[in-house]
Write a structure and sequence with these properties.
Helix content of chain A: under 10%
Order of helices and strands of chain A: EEEEEEEEEEE
Number of strands of chain B: 11
Shape of chain B: globular
Shape of chain A: globular
Number of strands of chain A: 11
Radius of gyration of chain A: 13 Å
Oligomer: heterodimer
Distance between the termini of chain A: 33 Å
Structural class of chain A: mainly beta
Largest interface: A-B, 26 and 23 residues
Chain lengths: 113, 112
């Protein structure tokens, strides 16, 4: 089984709809991250969490919210989706050690019409 | 603010040649730098980490160098194969030490 899973893998929604993307990990890592990836812009950090009581904004948090339901679960919500939120979304996890690498999920491809 | 630049968006080489990818950074002195591989429609996968006090790191056909004076890392794939075709991303821990920031990536295409 994959260490980091994301659901759904693909989603089409309409402008103004609320949508939630979910992430689960079995690596036992305390740190979890949400990134979005757009052609020509690379990976950009949306939100990150160091534990269930610690949530932090990344560089592009406007229009998004997150919830850390448990150490293993971190969900990303778009309260009112807009077309420029069409992107590939990745969840990632990392241990708290300074040299630790990140493990990414398979991604969710979101299209907002 | 910190910036990471991967100079080439795309690199095309022939099988068997050495591919060299460049990562430059500014406004920062990272303790280490990481390289990831990303295949289309998939999440990035970690390849190598090099610390600031290491000049060079090798793993099989991969070699990474880190020049803190030039603020540059070079990523080499020797004896390249079509299976090496992918996008390669460099990444640094941000100054707060809280998250990795990524370059935009270089897409390598190896033709047979």
């Amino acid at each position: 089984d994959a260490d980091v899973t994301q659901t759904p893998r693909n989603r089409i929604t309409k402008t103004g709809k609320r949508i939630m993307l979910e992430c689960s990990q079995t690596k036992g890592h305390d740190r979890m991250y949400w990134y979005r990836q757009d052609p020509g812009l690379g990976l950009r950090l949306i939100y990150y969490s160091f534990d269930v009581k610690d949530i932090n904004k990344g560089e592009i948090s406007d229009g998004y919210s997150v919830s850390r339901q448990a150490q293993a679960k971190f969900s990303l919500s778009l309260e009112s989706a807009i077309p420029n939120q069409t992107a590939l979304y990745f969840c990632a996890t990392r241990s708290s050690g300074r040299l630790e690498t990140q493990y990414f999920g398979p991604g969710t491809r979101l299209l907002v019409l | 603010s910190q910036k990471i630049e991967q100079n080439s968006e795309a690199l095309n080489i022939q099988e068997g040649k050495t591919a060299t990818l460049t990562c430059n950074y500014t406004n920062y002195s990272p303790a280490y730098l990481q390289w990831y591989r990303q295949d289309p429609g998939r999440g990035p996968v970690f390849l190598l980490l090099i610390r600031e006090n290491e000049k060079e790191k090798r793993k099989e056909r991969l070699k990474v160098t880190f020049d803190t004076t030039l603020k540059q890392s070079l990523f080499h794939i020797t004896a390249s194969q079509p299976a090496d075709s992918a996008t390669y991303l460099c990444a640094l821990l941000n100054q707060a030490g809280t998250a990795l920031i990524f370059g935009k990536g270089t897409t390598l295409s190896v033709s047979s």
